[in-house]
Design brief:
Elements: H1 10-22, H2 27-36, H3 39-70
Length: 71
């Protein structure tokens, strides 16, 4: 298979989605994503990372409120 026919690995998709979260990505990577990536993969990883982010923020808020209430 040529480079353009190969599907992206999970870690390539993860890296692209994480870059999109902060709004920074190289043009070559963006072009690679559009040529070789499947939209379904980016959507699923994006949803997963969003849920992880929300749970992390929720956990930090619970921790801070618990520490503030205890003192």
């Amino acid at each position: 298979m040529s480079d353009e026919e190969q599907k992206l690995s999970f870690f390539q998709v993860l890296g692209s989605v994480m870059s999109s979260f902060i709004g920074v990505q190289k043009n070559e990577v963006r072009e690679r994503d559009f040529k070789r990536g499947r939209p379904r993969d980016f959507i699923l990883v994006g949803i997963l990372l969003t849920v992880v982010f929300i749970l992390a923020v929720w956990g930090v808020v619970k921790l801070v409120v618990g520490l503030a209430a205890g003192s």
